[in-house]
Amino acid sequence: MGDGDRFIAQDRRPASIDPVDPASLTPRARALLFLPDLVTDFLETSFGEPITVTCLSQSNRDDLIDQDLGVGPGDSVVVRESAIHGANSGRPLIHAQVRLAEAGVPSELVEDLKDLSVGLGRLLDKHEVVCEREMLWYGLDRAETMSVDLRGILEGDRFVARCYRLVAPGGVVATLVERFS
User: Residue 135 and residue 9: Cα distance in Å, rounded?
Assistant: First the structure.
């Protein structure tokens, strides 16, 4: 099985995201792409410093239809956009977009999301929510085609993007799209 075979929904990669050959990526970008886990520990080890999460926006929505998350109109979803950077260096590392199905996690976790400086991975650990990761798709995103402006969040104008979902015993908990350069 090739590395790309780990992604089960590559055919659903958004049309605005270009295909990319993983072999063309730097070793760190390739490791981030295929890491079957949340990135916090990897980033801290790789860059030798703690990470800081800055929440760029967060809202509650009940009007989304998301096939990968398994939600429809009336389902309560937390939508969060964050920047992850080195705590000491300020180095930009990851841009993350999360959709979290509130019904799939403890209400205390949803409440803790109001602390905008804590990442989802740390909250899942704190509340002992055990999830498997299902890698969905990956590709190369370009600044000029993105719906979000990453100037000042990530360096460059082309970003590796990956999408995956977190699946707990009761079902899908969240979908995440992460971008990094």
Answer: 8
